[in-house]
Design brief:
Shape: globular
Number of domains: 1
CATH architecture: Alpha-Beta Complex
CATH class: Alpha Beta
Strand content: 15-25%
Radius of gyration: 16 Å
Order of helices and strands: EHEHEHEHEHEHHEH
Structural class: alpha/beta
Number of strands: 7
Helix content: 25-40%
Largest sheet: 7 strands, mixed
Strand order of the largest sheet: 3-2-1-4-6-5-7
CATH topology: Spore Coat Polysaccharide Biosynthesis Protein SpsA, Chain A
Length: 230
């Protein structure tokens, strides 16, 4: 156990097939924690599953009345998070909560304020989608050029950061623009950023993957916007 409290913020949209398994894995991780679950107006039965956790100890359950996007769901979750360290967790099974220890180590030993869990630093991963990989590399490269960072995976879901980081930035993006926005703003504030290797069990579109090429195009705009115009 670590002498800090974690807030695990989980944005949820149409993940009825994976949510309960994911939450069981999060519960099993041996840290003092709260689980902040934000349903972004799911329509596939996920909402009814989320509703079952409203009275469960250790959970804060929040419901959007209309779909707003991942960034909006995260902002809702952040506003209700009370932990010393915040970890973002997707509701699918692509990211493994067993990696929390890797994310936390640089923060707990005083080296980092923000930690990115990189899918491209040699951890085990499912082999999928060359063009997605290339797109991620291109977006990370563009982001690095404008932020002067040397990240390998700007678009990763797994980001852990201290409460001070959260209090020091104002987030605006509603959809997947959260990733470049967050990166731009923590770099501008000169927070200490680390990367650690994580495992990654990517899924294909038949299994529920949502992000597509339009989100990649939008990410290019957000990378430029939040560095040059925000």
């Amino acid at each position: 156990m670590v002498p800090v409290k974690l807030s695990i913020v989980i944005p949820v949209y149409n993940e009825k097939n994976t949510l309960e398994t994911l939450l069981t894995r999060v519960e099993a991780v041996d840290y003092e924690k709260e689980i902040v679950l934000v349903d972004d107006c799911s329509t596939d039965g996920t909402r009814e599953i989320v509703d079952n956790y409203k009275t469960k100890k250790g959970y804060t359950v929040l419901m959007h009345t209309q779909n707003q996007g991942k960034g909006a769901a995260l902002r809702t979750g952040f506003a209700h998070a009370s932990g010393d360290i915040i970890i973002i967790q997707d509701a699918d099974l692509e990211y493994d909560p067993k990696d929390y220890g890797k994310l936390l180590e640089p923060i707990l030993d005083g080296r980092a304020d923000v930690v990115y869990g990189s899918r491209f630093l040699g951890g085990p991963h499912r082999v999928l989608f060359f063009w997605h990989y290339l797109g991620n590399m291109a977006l990370t490269l563009l982001s690095n050029m404008l932020t002067n960072l040397n990240l390998t995976d700007m678009e990763t879901c797994y980001k852990a950061f201290t409460r001070q980081v959260l209090k020091s930035i104002t987030l605006k993006c509603n959809r997947f623009g959260f990733e470049p926005e967050f990166t731009s703003k923590v770099s501008r504030k000169k927070f200490r950023i680390y990367e650690v290797p994580i495992s990654y069990s990517g899924r294909d579109y038949a299994e529920g993957k949502k992000i597509g090429w339009k989100d990649g195009v939008a990410a290019i705009w957000f990378i430029i916007r939040f560095r040059l115009f925000d």
